[in-house]
Specification:
This protein is mainly α. It is 77% helix and 0% strand. Helix 3 runs parallel beside helix 6, helix 4 packs antiparallel against helix 6 and helix 4 runs parallel beside helix 7. The longest helix is centred in the middle third of the chain and has 33 residues. The chain is globular, with a radius of gyration of 22 Å. The two termini are 40 Å apart.
Length: 265
C-alpha cells in the first residue's frame, strides 16, 4: 500500500499536476526517427535514396521502350533503389546503439528494451512507408510525362498492386532490422545482409535446386509481387521464405538483444 502511495505521489508531483509515469511511446518513436537522420551514414543513405528515385524515372523516360512506359513499370523501377538502400538504414538504427556505445544510456533511460526495439521498428517502418508513397508519386509524375515519348501511359495498377509493393518494402526493412538485431555490428550485419542472400540465390539457381527456390529464396518468392500475378501457392512460398529470412533471424535477434549485457565500452 505504501509503495502504491509513493508511486501516486510521484505521479502527482509539482503542485498536484498529473505527470506521465513513463516516457510515452510516441516520444520514443520520434527519438528513433531523429536517430535515423542524425548520423552521417544515415543522412547519406537518405540523400542517395531521394536522389536515385527521380533519376531512375528520368533514365526510364530517356531510354526505355515506349511500351514499358506505364505506371506499373515505373513503380517497379522507383522501388528498386529503396529496396537496395533502405535495409542498410534499418540495420544502422539498431547497430548504432552498440557500435556508438549509446546503448547504456538508451536502456538506462528506458529500461524496457522491448519498448526501445518496438520504437525502432515503428520508426523504420514508418519512414519506409513514407518513402514508398513518395516513390508512388514520382512514378505517377513520370507516367504523365511518358506521353512525350508516346509511351503507353497505362494506369492499370490497382489497390492490390499498391499493397504488394508496400509488402515488399516492409519485408525488406524487417529483414534489415533482423540482421541488425542478430549481429549488432554494422559492418558485419550489412555484409551479411547483402552477401548471404546473393550466395543463397546462386545456390538455388543450380538445376537440382531451382525448382524449389521460391520456397527458400525470398527474392524469388517476391517475384510474383512485382508482376502482380501471385497465386495461392505463391503466397505459401512467400510465407515460407519470409520465415527463413525475416521471422527466424528477427526472433533470434530480439531474444539476443533482450538478454545480452549492455556495456559502456
Amino acid at each position: 500500500m505504501s509503495a502504491q502511495g509513493s508511486s501516486l505521489s510521484l505521479q502527482r508531483a509539482g503542485g498536484g499536476r498529473a505527470v506521465p509515469a513513463g516516457i510515452p511511446f510516441s516520444r520514443l518513436v520520434r527519438a528513433e526517427l531523429r536517430k535515423l537522420t542524425d548520423t552521417r551514414a544515415s543522412r547519406l543513405l537518405l540523400i542517395a535514396t531521394a536522389v536515385a528515385t527521380p533519376v531512375v524515372i528520368a533514365v526510364m523516360l530517356a531510354v526505355a521502350a515506349p511500351r514499358d512506359l506505364n505506371y506499373t513499370r515505373l513503380v517497379d523501377f522507383t522501388q528498386t533503389p529503396q529496396k537496395f538502400l533502405l535495409p542498410a538504414l534499418a540495420i544502422l538504427v539498431v547497430t548504432s546503439e552498440w557500435s556508438q556505445r549509446t546503448g547504456l544510456v538508451t536502456f538506462t533511460l528506458v529500461p524496457s528494451r522491448s519498448r526501445v526495439l518496438r520504437a525502432k521498428a515503428s520508426a523504420t517502418l514508418g519512414l519506409g512507408l513514407a518513402l514508398i508513397i513518395i516513390a508512388f508519386a514520382v512514378a505517377a509524375a513520370g507516367n504523365l510525362l511518358s506521353g512525350l515519348r508516346h509511351g503507353g501511359g497505362s494506369w492499370a495498377f490497382g489497390a492490390l498492386g499498391f499493397g504488394e509493393m508496400i509488402l515488399v518494402q516492409l519485408l525488406t526493412l524487417l529483414e534489415g532490422l533482423a540482421f541488425g538485431m542478430l549481429l549488432r555490428v554494422s559492418a558485419a550485419a550489412i555484409a551479411a545482409y547483402y552477401v548471404l542472400p546473393t550466395v543463397w540465390s546462386a545456390l538455388f539457381s543450380t538445376p537440382g535446386l531451382k525448382g524449389n527456390a521460391p520456397w527458400f529464396d525470398l527474392n524469388q518468392a517476391q517475384g510474383p509481387l512485382y508482376t502482380h500475378d501471385i497465386t495461392a501457392t505463391g503466397w505459401l512460398q512467400l510465407l515460407c521464405a519470409a520465415s527463413i529470412w525475416v521471422l527466424l533471424p528477427l526472433t533470434a535477434g530480439i531474444v539476443h538483444a533482450l538478454r545480452s549485457e549492455i556495456k559502456s565500452g
